[in-house]
Specification:
With about 550 residues, this protein is α+β, with helices and mostly antiparallel strands. Helix content is about 25%, strand content about 30%. The strands form 5 sheets. Strands 15, 16, 17, 18, 19, 20 and 22 form a 7-stranded mixed beta sheet that branches.
């Protein structure tokens, strides 16, 4: 019996020592913290002891075994109170979920095509350029790149036509060969070639293009082609993963990924498109290619980049697929794309304007001019009105309005919620055709003004000035200083209204300014444009 108990003690010691060595080794390596190491040692002691003490525990005749049994029995709550497994294993954070870009590229890459174009444009006339001496260090440069006037270059006069070559991308939306791309990719093209990933090439026909949205529809004679799945931007969130496939610099079927940086971006001269901004690497040649969401659905057409170098700098812009698909449907059904217009000149509402017009917050589209006889004029819209909603949709920035109107049809009736003279009103308007005239956003060119709280020197227009300018009512600004000058009012501007109230006398101006403690909004005629300029009075 003594030998059996001695063997048990020896066996317990042999099994405990390696366990302790292992735990302290893990602590030293940083795998376990000090507290975790102590817990692990305690757990190991309990587990090992209980497993090796089973045989001798039946006999109590040996006094030497008593202290050991007491120690085991006085361990706080038996082994069930000590979670052995968690104590010896560090917690593992759940794996982050990433989209399977490889799967998206493999599944839809074959539906992305390379688009190459050839055409001619009129060459601008240039004066004669001197011939380059063969010993000149720039001789080889001019020869290689065929610079006009250089060695082997074109004639010095530069008239006539010159050939153009370009490349872009596109994607197949119909198995019978309908392809979407950018309008600027095929602009001035006399020959368009589409190349598939299996290296087959097809001469493409341009079914139609819409410069206002930069969308074009091509058709190739083929059947059974792979197609992409079209998605929606409605549920696309800022920060969501997106993937681009295209031909940057001619490198076909290149894949790049990033996230959505913003939605509803307005770009200069691109009033009809609420762009998706991303940080996906897009370069020349990517234009017209698809932008996929994490589910492998096309949510946009890569169209533009913001760059000071001509290459990618982290700002890429895509046309929402809903805009592109609407253009496609119109082209396929009638070959012509129509956009609606309201017939107004608008500008953003900033905080100063909001204060001047007593708006709760700076949002909406401020009407600075209404086209005479246009849809807005017929609906009763006036300069100084702030359009807050179109068909119930809130207009946050002025650029939202043209983008909304651009997706509507001429002749369609819309409801406008406006802010006029400190209260909300509703108007109904029948939209016109944007192909006749386009919506205009005013340039907020800023200039100068003088005298009094406002800093303006004003006088009534002379009859001759009224005839020459076509302005019947208003005050000529002879000089500008102080707050008005800082805001950008210029001598020679004609003041038409203050805070939406038409003015024909200096006294009217003083009365309105006196009732405006913080700021005023001046409606000015500057040349052929009407613009609002906010002026802070303090």
């Amino acid at each position: 019996m003594d030998q059996q108990q001695d063997f048990s003690k020896q066996s317990r010691a042999e099994t405990m020592i390696p366990a302790r060595k292992l735990v302290w080794a893990l602590v030293a390596a940083g795998v376990l913290g000090a507290a975790g190491g102590a817990g692990a040692l305690h757990a190991a002691d309990v587990v090992r002891t209980s497993s090796t003490a089973v045989a001798p525990s039946a006999s109590t005749s040996d006094a030497g075994s008593a202290p050991q049994n007491v120690a085991l029995n006085t361990t706080p709550a038996p082994t069930t109170s000590t979670p052995a497994a968690p104590a010896t294993q560090a917690p593992v954070a759940p794996a982050a979920s990433f989209p399977d870009f490889a799967e998206i590229a493999a599944r839809h890459g074959a539906a992305v095509v390379n688009v190459s174009v050839m055409g001619t444009v009129k060459a601008q006339r240039r004066g004669p350029m001197p011939q380059i001496d063969p010993d000149d260090p720039f001789f080889e440069f001019f020869r290689r790149f065929q610079i006009p006037g250089g060695p082997n270059g074109q004639g010095g006069q530069g008239g006539g036509e010159r050939a153009i070559h370009g490349q872009g991308s596109g994607f197949i939306v119909s198995a019978d060969g309908v392809i979407l791309t950018n309008a600027h990719v095929v602009r001035d093209a006399q020959e368009v070639t589409v190349k598939l990933t299996d290296r087959r090439e097809f001469r493409a026909k341009v079914l139609g293009s819409d410069p206002k949205t930069d969308v074009a529809v091509l058709k190739i004679e083929a059947k059974g082609l792979p197609v992409v799945t079209l998605g929606s931007t409605k549920n696309l969130r800022v920060g969501e993963w997106v993937l681009a496939i295209g031909s940057p610099f001619g490198f076909e079927n290149s894949v790049s990924a990033g996230v959505v940086s913003a939605k509803g971006r307005a770009l200069p001269q691109e009033n009809f498109v609420p762009f998706i901004q991303t940080d996906v690497a897009v370069n020349p040649g990517n234009s017209g290619g698809p932008l996929f969401n994490a589910r492998g659905e096309v949510v946009g057409i890569n169209s533009q980049i913001y760059s000071q170098t001509g290459g990618y700098q982290g700002l890429s812009f895509a046309i929402p697929i809903e805009v592109a698909n609407k253009v496609r449907q119109q082209i396929e059904s009638g070959g012509k794309v129509q956009h609606a217009r309201l017939g107004v000149t608008i500008q953003d509402v900033n905080q100063t304007f909001a204060d001047s017009f007593k708006l709760d917050k700076p949002e909406g589209a401020l009407v600075s001019n209404v086209e005479e006889g246009g849809p807005a004029a017929k609906a009763g819209l006036k300069a100084g009105d702030v359009i807050l909603k179109l068909n119930g949709e809130i207009i946050v920035a002025s650029s939202d309005l043209p983008a909304m109107l651009g997706q509507m049809q001429p002749g369609e009736r819309v409801k406008l919620e406006i802010w006029r003279q400190g209260k909300r009103e509703e108007l109904s308007a029948k939209l016109g055709d944007a192909n006749d005239k386009s919506e205009k956003q005013a340039n907020d060119d800023e200039g100068g003004a003088p005298q009094g709280k406002l800093g303006l020197t004003l006088r009534a227009l002379q009859p001759q000035e009224q005839r020459e300018s076509g302005i019947r009512n208003g005050l000529l600004i002879e000089d500008a200083s102080g707050p008005s000058a800082m805001a950008g009012v210029r001598a020679g501007d004609v003041l038409l209204a203050v805070n939406g109230t038409p003015v024909t006398s200096v006294d009217q101006v003083k009365a309105v300014v006196a009732a405006s403690p913080k700021s005023v909004a001046l409606l000015l005629q500057r040349g052929n444009d009407r613009i609002f300029i906010p002026v802070r009075l303090n």
